[in-house]
Amino acid sequence: MTVVSRILSASSKILLLPSRSIATTSVSYIQPSALVQVAQTTSRLRNVTMLTERKPFSSDFFFRQLFDEKSWTYSYLLGDINSKEAVLIDPVLEQAKRDAKLVQELGFNLTYALNTHMHADHITGTGYLKQLLPGTISVISEASGAKADKYLRDNEVVKFGRFELKAMSTPGHTNGCMTYVVEEQGVAFTGDTLLIRGCGRTDFQEGDSRTLYKSVHERIFTLPENFRLFPAHDYKGNMETSVAEEKQYNPRLTKDIDGFVEIMANLNLPYPKMIDKAVPANRECGLYDIPKEE
């Protein structure tokens, strides 16, 4: 029996004791504050358990989180340390040289450059990376409407070395949004579908609040609660979250579907600054005013 279970069991017994039994104990009564302390301790232990049960990465799995300060975008380099095959999720055009240099320094072969969806806030680096690292294959969902070397459908798998990354369709922010899951490592890359304590907009580019809500609740929130979640953006300095955290603390997605739709309809967000440039470029795999390498 775990520590949490023992405390819960003990607190249940205390609460079920009749008043006559309590009166005959050496303590004439139990202070209400004692029960509050038990409940608070139990809650804290539950939180500790939630955090410590997360899977550690296997010794042959490489993970690196990268950041673009202009668009607040996270990119993710994943690799098989033994085979040296790697993938890069959601690269940014302005950071393509940085990313290519890192791949080369670490001795990886970048097999795939993937986008979680057709971005509206930055130009993807996939096209430039194909130029910088010949042999790189660009990847995006078939439903995205963007060009790529390889298109993915729901539950299709991309392999790099011995690892598998499963593409899970999670539309709502855009029709082509996908969450990429590496089940063995207990991680998922949610793009803009699910952010840390938030979610992607649904007021442009095929956005639909009800679809997004269902994508999160039926696909992402049904992953194991200890899975670590990595979004495409964060605007407050957070770097990761988990299924358990978002199910408990996400201020939008803990509401019922009608409440969520109402919240999303009243965000009153400004028109995206980069959308008129980013979407046409990303439709062409990011091949838009990129320099030609000598």
TrEMBL record:
InterPro entries in UniProt: Metallo-B-lactamas, Mito_Persulfide_Diox, POD-like_MBL-fold, RibonucZ/Hydroxyglut_hydro
Gene Ontology MF, one: sulfur dioxygenase activity
Catalysis: reaction(s): S-sulfanylglutathione + O2 + H2O = sulfite + glutathione + 2 H(+)
Cofactor(s) of this protein: Fe(2+)
Quaternary structure note: Homodimer. Monomer. Interacts with TST. May interact with RELA.
EC nos: 1.13.11.18
PANTHER family per UniProt: PERSULFIDE DIOXYGENASE ETHE1, PERSULFIDE DIOXYGENASE ETHE1, MITOCHONDRIAL
Gene Ontology cellular-component annotations: mitochondrion
Domain named Metallo-beta-lactamase: residues: 72-233
GO annotation, biological process: glutathione metabolic process; hydrogen sulfide metabolic process; RNA 3'-end processing
Keyword set, alphabetical order: Acetylation, Dioxygenase, Iron, Metal-binding, Mitochondrion, Oxidoreductase, Transit peptide
SUPFAM superfamilies (alphabetical): Metallo-hydrolase/oxidoreductase (SSF56281)
Organism from which the protein derives: Aedes albopictus (Asian tiger mosquito)
Family: Belongs to the metallo-beta-lactamase superfamily. Glyoxalase II family.
EC class of the enzyme, as a word: oxidoreductase
Subcellular location: Mitochondrion
Gene3D superfamilies (UniProt xref): Ribonuclease Z/Hydroxyacylglutathione hydrolase-like
Protein name per Swiss-Prot or TrEMBL: Persulfide dioxygenase ETHE1, mitochondrial
